[in-house]
Amino acid sequence: MSGPLIERIHAAVAANPAAPAFIFQDGIVSYAQFLSLIHATTALLHDRGVRPGDTVGLSMGRWPMHCVAFLALARLGALALPLPRNLGPDAGRALAARFGVSTVVSNWKDAPVQPGARLVLLDSMSLSGAAGEPDVGGYQPDGNTPLRVALTSGTTGARRGVVHTHASFMQRVDLTAVDCDRHSRLLPPDLHITAGFLMAIAVLTRGGTVVFDRTFSVTDIANTIRLYGVTHCLLSPAAVPRIAAILPERGLAFPSLRHLRIVGATPPPAMIGLLRARFTPEVYGVYGITEVGMLALATPELLATVPGCAGRVTPWARIEALGPDGQPLPPGESGELRVATEGMPGQYHCDPPGAVPARFRDGWFYPGDVGRVTADGLVFVESRADDIVNLGGHKYALPLIDAGIESHPAVRAAVAFTLEDADGNVVVGAAIEREPGPAAPGLEEIAAWVRRQMRITVAMRLFEVPGLARDDMGKINRDAVRMRVAGRRPG
Question: Which residues share a beta bridge with 150?
Fold first, then answer.
């Protein structure tokens, strides 16, 4: 077996073939069985016509065959494109067509398959047997072979993707693998998410174990961590309150966790305190971007002593804050951030030939974040550049308005945006999810309270929405919510 990724998996199997690669539905899949599954799936996909250079959609549930199918595609030299189920069938087919998908591999019969593409169903793990190295016509991938498309979340526009080769993917795996070793037990999120998938492969290449819960409900997550001694877990800030609600009020619920990574957004200090008191003290934060990888890491010590810090710049990354003139600002001053890492891409996959998107310029990537970097390399991400709005002559960051609305005891979650009234004046609009309870105040009463607390001089209109649109990691999609409520009268 050849290529950096395949070689690393093969080495993990050789080191201890009897070790558990996966725990799934109360059963164990050993590394020897894992390798047999890869061989058998490789042969099956080759027989179904998958060839080097093909773009193959991977739309799989949270189970071992997701990893198996990915590694089989890697062995065949195919480029894997994640097709998350939450995209919906129409959006999934449109994404597959845009990236030139020729085959979709899935365990769902209703997977998003566009006209002219093949569907290969892998709906069981009955291929295990004792399959040996398959004959695929002598083909061997190498480090330069394209491997996977990493998709953006879509919260700032249409989903776009960057290509990882075998070598660049393994480089990112190694940079992601904080504290991963053969004793690691990972409970991953949705494996279509790049951060979760990188961590899963990091654990597998080191001989550790990936543990899958049955339903991914909050109760199942909590029980799985405790039952199987999970050591590594990735959670979004949105998931934390829901899990905390079912935990005992006192004491650490997850003593086995030695690395709880919060991804998708910087957790607020109150959430860090909650996690340290009731989940585990070993809480980590990251500032990472799909296009370029992990840029800053916040250790438990840093999160405990520097509230609001997104992390310390990693040795392989550069982050600068820019002023309005596009020039770097002195340490500690806030501005638009630009970032760079070694070997990062220069454009999005399947963009027109020669096109250099505005986000990729002069060896830098411009993520659209506003923040600051201190002299000792601490990063603080304050908002999105397009989230700064002018209201009545004063500038506000929409995430701060979100937080202000959420500070009202009757509000569970909120997302703010700007609207125009009938006279063309800019007003604050916000969609909210209410906390359950009797005698809940009206929306106008909540809006008046928020305006007083935040000293907002323009009008505010609230809309009650039962479910706020979120991305793969649970972050609210501001644009999607705004489009949903545009034109509605306040509820």
Answer: 162
Domain shared by 444 and 335, yes or no: no
Banded model confidence at residue 100, pLDDT cuts 50, 70, 90? very high
What's the pTM value of the predicted model, to 2 decimals?
A: 0.84
Measured between alpha carbons, how far is 346 from 362 in angstroms, rounded to an integer? Answer: 9
Query: How far is it, in rounded angstroms, from Cα 258 to Cα 239?
Result: 19
For the four alpha carbons of 308, 246, 235 and 193, in that order, the dihedral sign comes to: negative
At residue 488, the pLDDT reads 55
* CATH number where 261 lies: 3.40.50.12780
DSSP three-state, residue 87: helix
Q: Is residue 412 helix, strand or coil?
A: strand
Task: Check whether residue 298 and residue 324 sit in a common domain.
Answer: yes
Query: Does pLDDT of 425 surpass 90?
Result: no
Beta-carbon contacts of residue 442 (< 8 Å; ≥ 6 apart):
none
8-state DSSP, 351? P
Mean pLDDT within 232-247: 91
Range of the domain at 161: 4-379
Residue with tokens 């063309």: 424
| Residue labelled with tokens 């323009």 | 458
* Token pair 């600068």 in the structure block, residue: 320
On whether both 174 and 261 belong to a single domain, the answer is yes
- Residue 1's pLDDT is 39
Among 328, 358, 379, the domain boundary falls at: 379
Helix, strand, or coil here: 418?
strand
